[in-house]
Amino acid sequence: MRESNRKAVIEFLFKDTFFKELFDSELSDAKFKPLRLLGLDTLEKLLSLSRENALKINYIGRKTYRALRELQEHYNEVVNGISNSKALRFKDFKWVLKRNQRILDIFSRGKIMDGDAPFPSLSQWILENSWQSERNRRVFMCRMGMLGEPQMTYDQIGIQHGITKERVRQIILKVQSNGRHPLQRIRLDPLISEAARIVKTGGESMGISALTERLLNRGPQGALLKHAQPFMEYVASFPEWREAIG
Predict the structure, then answer these.
(1) Cα–Cα dist 96/88, whole Å
(2) pLDDT digits (tens, 9 = 90+) for 214-226
(3) Cβ distance 89 to 12 under 8 Å?
(4) Helix, strand, coil share (%) of the chain residues, nearest 5
């Protein structure tokens, strides 16, 4: 592989907003705090950090060092994968993830993902964000008004599922956090695109509210989502919604 190819790919990734978001989410882990304090905030800096210099960093233990080396190996594989494939070069990074299963696997870290396949339903998307726990999925959907009834309180949900209201709150926050992760958000892209197409061809004014409503009413779940205003407010914060109406 020519070194010029590698430099060009690193430059391409440096300019890609979605890649930077993924990169920042990886480095946000608490164990990488010593690296962040040193200003290790770009792919180029990460890959150029030698073994000798890494070992000199204060407060970096064996566990962090191993994680750092693994991170470097993963990102080297990403860069090499794009550099060695003309078909993958100089597209946006979302496109790269959806076209290269190996690169997607590196970021998903053991999660089974098909970045190019739409979810059959929002329920399935939420189930994955709920660690495949049916209880946690229902807890989240009850709170978001997604089961045909108005939003339930933490107390009501806790009584229904035999857990404390504090545990309910923790589950809601964690599922919301999982759903905001860049890799999970892009899995809603096909649904967002379809909702945008329906709104545009229907002659309606394009807006986040109209777009979200179309998504919520896609498929047989539509009748269950008439009270899902809390969920609408949640997904309205996703950058992909802004892109669809831009």
Answers:
(1) 6
(2) 666 655 555 667 7
(3) yes
(4) 70, 0, 30
pLDDT digits (tens, 9 = 90+) for 63-96: 778 888 888 899 999 998 888 887 776 678 888 8
State the DSSP string of 13-56.
Answer: HHH-HHHHHHHHHHHTSGGGHHHHHTT--SHHHHHH--HHHHHT
pTM: 0.68
Q: 204: closest CA among 215, 192, 196?
A: 196
Q: Report the alpha-carbon distance of residue 10 to residue 73 in Å, rounded.
A: 14
CA distance 103 to 169: 34
CA distances from 227 to 177, 235, 242 (A): 22, 15, 23
Q: Which residue has the tokens 């809603």?
A: 188
Instruction: Specify the 3-state DSSP secondary structure of 127.
Output: helix
CA atoms of 16 and 21, how far apart (whole Å): 9
